[in-house]
Design brief:
With 71 residues, this protein is mainly α. It has five helices and no strands.
Length: 71
């Protein structure tokens, strides 16, 4: 997963309250369609479980270091 896409998701989650709510508790998959992600990348982001945006972003950052997803 490219760091550019990770940063874009994280930034939008921090700045856009509606996006943040969707990413944490709503139609996450639909919101991820706004980004240029492969199906494998979407599944990786979908697998993140986090009760708040801070933990979500930390787990999202972990994806960047996952060898088979890192770009």
């Amino acid at each position: 997963m490219s760091s550019l896409q990770l940063n874009a998701i994280a930034t939008r989650a921090l700045l856009d309250n509606q996006f943040q709510a969707a990413i944490l508790n709503g139609p996450r998959r639909e919101r991820l369609n706004d980004f240029d992600l492969s199906e494998e990348e979407i599944e990786a982001v979908m697998s993140i479980e986090a009760p708040n945006v801070d933990l979500f972003i930390r787990r999202l950052g972990h994806l960047m270091t996952t060898p088979h997803l890192a770009a």
